[in-house]
Amino acid sequence: MFKVALIEDDVPTSNQLRGWIESTKPGITVHQWFTRDDAEAAITRENYDLVVLDIELGRERHAGVAIINVINKDHGTPVLVVSAMPATIYRSIMKALDAWDYLQKSTFEEADFLDTFMEMLRAARTRKEVQQAPAAQTPDELHLDPLRQTSPTWRGQRVNLPLTAQRILSALYQQRGQVVSYDDLFMVVKSGRNRDNIRKHVSTIRDAFREIDPSFDGIENVPMRGFRWVEPGSRHS
Known about the structure:
Layout: E1 3-7, H1 11-22, E2 29-33, H2 36-45, E3 50-53, H3 63-74, E4 79-83, H4 87-96, E5 101-104, H5 110-132, E6 142-145, E7 150-154, E8 157-158, H6 163-174, E9 179-181, H7 182-186, H8 195-212, E10 219-222, E11 226-229
Parallel strand pairs: 1-2, 1-3, 3-4, 4-5
Antiparallel strand pairs: 6-7, 7-8, 9-11, 10-11
Helix pairs in contact: 2-3, 6-8
InterPro entries: CheY-like_superfamily, OmpR/PhoB-type_DNA-bd, Sig_transdc_resp-reg_C-effctor, Sig_transdc_resp-reg_receiver, WalR-like, WH-like_DNA-bd_sf
Keywords: DNA-binding, Phosphoprotein, Transcription, Transcription regulation, Two-component regulatory system
GO molecular function: phosphorelay response regulator activity; transcription cis-regulatory region binding
């Protein structure tokens, strides 16, 4: 079941858009709002899958901008702006506000609206499926792609590491919870196969993580043996 907020102060236009929206998918729910205050209260209260709104509401020329800011703060719900404001000026403004698309009134037909709306609806469906997926499917905060040799990401942020450090990180993470010996780590470096060099690479890895996460403590030094990846935050002093 998909739920859409339609924010438009002109009643005939609102009813027309509602009819178009309801024709896209059986069972779709459309809530119509006509004022900024009512719309903002609904956005805060409800979890909409998609929002269609006008920029001007009553005498407030940029009421829609304020509503988009509320949406971005609370939910980040996809927004389709339908306004009489000139697209040449306002499309870029709406993009900067993270609105997904912009249609200028009197310049589009029903088919144009439906194409745009249905594309956004498909994106909203994917977004909803991701949000509802069990958390256990994505338990790891670290993501590695050693085959492509692309930079790893930590909690969604890129970790800037040279290739050798990436290989060492991958070796530690693949055996997380276990000690990876110096001898094992020698196997993933092409030169400088000595303990001092391995320690320097590990130090580089730690520094790179701490640039984006100052509290990072996920690599444990095991004296005389090697290193171990541990669950960050689980170590005790």
